[in-house]
Amino acid sequence: MRDFWQALRRNRMGVIGLIMIVLTLLMAIFAPLLAPYNPKERIRVTLDSIYAKPSLEHPFGTDDAGKDVLSNFIYGARVSLTVGFFASFISVVIGGTIGLISGFFGGKIDNLLMRFTDIVLVIPDLPLAVVLVALTKPSLMNIIIVIGILGWTGTARLVRSQTISVKERKFVLRAKAIGAHPLYILRNHIFPLVLPLMIANTVLVISLAILNESALAFLGLGDPSTLSWGQMLNFAFTRGAMSSGAWWALLAPGLGIVWLVLGCTLLGQGFQQILNPRLESHHLQKSEMIALEGSHVQQATG
Amino acid sequence: MKRCLIIGLMLCGMALAQGTVRIGWAGSPDTLNPGTAVLSEAFTLFDLVYDSLFNLELDGSIQPELVDTYEVSEDGTVWTFKLHEGAMFHDGEPLTAADVAFSLDYYKANEDFPFANGYTSYFDSIEAADDSTVLVTLSEAIPNMLSQLLYLYILPEHIWSSYPAGSAATEFENLEMIGSGPFKMTEYKQGEYVRLSANKDHYAKAPNIDEIVFQTFGSQDVLVQALRTGQVDMITEMPNTAVVSLRNDPNIELVIGAPLSPSVRDIIFNVTNSDTCPADDGICSGHPALLDLNVRQALAHATDKLQIIDVALLGLGTPGTGLIMDGMGEWFNSSLEDYVYDPEAANKLLDDAGYLDSNGDGVREMPDGSRDLSFRFYWPNDVIEAPRVAELLSQMWGDIGVKLELQALDPDALTSVCCPSFDFDIIMWGWSSDPDPGFMLSVLTSDEIPTGTSETGYSNPEYDELYAAQATELDPAKRQEIVWQMQAIMLRDLPYIIPYYQQQVQAFRTDRFSGWITDATKVALEDPSSLTQIEAIQ
Prior knowledge:
The complex is a heterodimer.
Chain A: H1 2-10, H2 12-29, H3 31-34, H4 69-105, H5 107-122, H6 125-135, H7 140-150, H8 153-167, H9 170-177, H10 182-218, H11 229-238, H12 247-275, H13 283-292, H14 297-301
Chain B: H1 2-15, E1 20-25, H2 40-49, E2 54-56, E3 62-64, E4 67-72, E5 78-83, H3 97-109, H4 116-119, E6 123-130, E7 133-138, H5 145-148, H6 157-160, H7 166-171, E8 183-189, E9 193-198, E10 211-216, H8 220-228, E11 234-235, H9 243-247, E12 252-259, E13 263-269, H10 293-301, H11 305-313, E14 317-318, H12 343-352, E15 374-380, H13 386-398, E16 403-409, H14 411-418, E17 426-432, H15 438-442, H16 461-472, H17 476-493, E18 496-502, E19 504-509, E20 513-514, E21 522-523, H18 528-531, E22 535-536
Parallel strand pairs in B: 1-10, 1-11, 12-21, 15-16, 15-17
Antiparallel strand pairs in B: 2-3, 4-5, 5-7, 6-7, 8-9, 9-10, 11-19, 12-19, 13-17, 13-18, 14-18, 20-22
Helix pairs in contact in B: 10-12, 11-13, 16-17
């Protein structure tokens, strides 16, 4: 584990991603201290107080209901992060379980689970999420569940391939030979080796979940009483921010989403590079090397 | 690249003929058949392309249109209409009393026509005495005969007699749309645009312009952009949030005021019980707490209507008391005292009625503890201010321990959960009305529960009796008294909470056409009165 952190510190992109996420987390946690206004506060609104330009009083301007965009933005991070973490947790638990079982037991079980994964994989995420959210109630909980149960396919495939490679290792074979129970092997030998990969994958799935939540809220499928960045975009879009020239009402939540997704992607890729150093060199570079050193072909591809 | 741009501009300039007024709207007519149409966009076209016997003016009064003079028999049952001379259909055939009698008979015979058929319900017989005289005999004298005739457009018998009844009548697309009005249909692309040309031979109000193009845009926000860039000359609707930016544009003038069809936003409570649930289609899954008047009163006390009007409409509306809108003139009961916004009173009502939060989760439970006071709350996703209203209501009602599960639904999905299935707790929706209070009052009658017109399932014999009485009360003062009494009952029994009556917001460019009617009591730039009067600016 210590090696892992040291490796991460050397991975500059990963560190930047980590800082971006931590900053957002801090902002969400300390929202009541940071936000200049309380978004739930009821204020009198007039035609002139909506879409006010950024000023000292309102650094990011005001939105269609005369509310401070900066405060909404700070509080909105809470929803995006909550959905991101919980939905990706659900995804990774489902995907991890299916991947482990499928990879470890192989054969018919593997075939069945992977075909099921293929089916879920080919269904486009967003339209299905739209349908599911429309059928259930658009509470935050349901949105988390819907996004969670749609985002596990990538994890399942990744974990399966890692499991297959791990289970052929000598110590696993030895454990089998002395008659260890398959579940024991799975828990004590394979799972610990697959776990880092799952963590790295979780971070990547978070960014997907955040994007999906924003998309759902933007399409008007969110709960309007839940203040998220997607919901802010939805209000700005449907209530005339564009025609009023209020770019700030769209820019703040938009950049927030980009920031958080970028942070997760950088950190996730950092994790993967550390866990799988072969990713660090480009495969084309490798093939050049192979061409130059013909004798290594067998090893490099095998 | 530059050359392309110049050519593009030239083409654009050529296509833009002097006398073509381009109108932008976010909707599109559902059908061109005046019998089956439901959407207001369709009725806007009918008003331009057809004539009816009487017309609703922008001052709210009803004036003769095709009718020159008319008289009514002593007992009020026989109406004699003398038609104007010179009315012609667009295909050159004269419009005669036979066409009028045919049209009224046609609407009466087709029970599947949602609105038109209802207007003829007291018509007993209709006959053409000669070429220009029509006699309508009523089964009973009614006080609102003229308003019944506003939307009964006169159809050419020589065309419509081929589609006499049943599915032939309801499925007829009427794409040619031959009428006698000041504009003729020239081109129609459903969901895209409608092109009308001026009927310069109109007997009364020949337009000054040559052509109108109604263009459908994807959203109201895009409409505002199109107006600003000069792509359209007038927009029939826009978000209130765009008022500020358009107000500062020197080439654009805004018109804000009472809509020609008064409109109301309503919060519908499902109050069906086992007795009133429709036998055929009823699911009646409403929350039992909503049957308790104490709960509905508490919700009314917890609703800050002024705050809602501020945030959702930016002040361009007035707080409501009942389904009869303040734009209905003397029919609106202005003496009613609304429930004041008072969360403490609301809390006390719920406490006293036994709805307590015994498990401390911030949401009250039923007196027997069986269920939370947690209500499903739906609204149609085409109402742009609705999410903001829902957000505010969930806060305001949350303050008194009532939870809302918010969900926007497609209007079709909303219809299917609404009525007559009553598979909801609370819906926020709305109505637009003709100037007579008759229809809006019928919405709460017991007879309408199985038909789907009643949204609440409210049933009160006293109200039903009053409804029947006002329908045939000929003395306007007495009818007004009954109508006012019915509004008092609505407010007392609270099958609805009415957050607001909204104002119409429209805008037009001042650099292309002049003569738009902006100073009338009602705002409707798309009304024939404006469109026949405007002139191109040279």
